[in-house]
Design brief:
The protein is of the alpha/beta class. 43% of the residues lie in helices and 12% in strands. The protein has a single domain (28-231), classed as P-loop containing nucleotide triphosphate hydrolases (Rossmann fold, 3-Layer(aba) Sandwich), CATH 3.40.50. It contains eleven helices and six strands.
């Protein structure tokens, strides 16, 4: 049995999975290809997610995403997550685990590096015969935007166009209640200097900000304050579950 087949078979035994009645299709090579998930994350598993808050958030996503037939709270509200931390702390692997499970539940999914998104928009690259990369990034149910802040190196573009294209994407997805997971190793200060404060306010309102080991003190403090912001009660008060 291949690693993918073993993962497909692990439903009830997985700590993050729901009960056996949950619709869960097999993940295929074609799925991974259309998701554009890098090969090194094809076999990413829940067991590889760092302990503590990262594992807690992955569990929350799995238990609240529902299925394509019965969308859960996360999908209905378009809640997302910002995984914040240094390189090699497991941010992208955790995002890949959520993305793969979402595809198993029948949702459309896409993985893209921020640098690749920037290039594809400039070059008007196609995803397939029906949509451009830009259109696909806006349309999918779940999007992982990897390494935000690295798309133009350390320099902010002179025109601000590169930054605005990400602001437009995030605003569009939030307004249409699409689930977005962003990974970054940029500090809070770098994010504020690079992107519009209004965009970061949207992120703060609709994303769980999850610090991974190695993130700076300001990032950890911000994450502790906002990490469960996307499990708000209808009256606007944050759930502490």
């Amino acid at each position: 049995m291949s690693k993918m087949e073993q993962q497909n078979a692990r439903v009830a035994s997985n700590p993050g999975s729901t009960d056996e009645k949950t619709f869960r299709r097999r993940l295929t090579g074609r799925d991974l290809e259309r998701m554009r998930l890098p090969a090194r994350f094809h076999h990413a598993t829940f067991d590889g997610v760092p302990d503590g808050m990262p594992k807690h958030i992955v569990r929350k996503f799995w238990s609240n995403m529902g299925t394509i037939f019965e969308p859960g709270e996360i999908v209905l509200n378009g809640w997302g997550a910002l995984f914040l931390g240094d390189n090699d702390t497991g941010k992208t692997g955790a995002a890949a685990v959520i993305l793969k499970e979402a595809r198993r539940r029948g949702f459309t999914c896409l993985f893209i590096r921020a640098q690749d998104y920037r290039s594809s928009v400039i070059d008007k690259e196609r995803f397939d015969e029906t949509a451009s990369i830009k259109q696909r990034c806006s349309a999918v149910d779940f999007l992982v935007l990897d390494d935000l802040g690295k798309e133009g190196g350390d320099e902010i573009s002179s025109s601000g166009g590169s930054e605005r294209m990400f602001e437009d994407l995030i605003r569009d997805r939030c307004s249409n209640r699409k689930v977005t997971i962003i990974t970054t190793n940029s500090s809070k200060q770098k994010m504020l200097s690079r992107y519009a404060r209004s965009m970061l306010d949207v992120v703060g309102e609709t994303f769980a900000i999850v610090p991974f080991e190695g993130s700076d003190r300001a990032g950890r403090k911000n994450g502790e304050q906002l990490v469960i912001s996307f499990f708000n009660h209808p009256d606007g008060t944050a759930s502490q579950e």
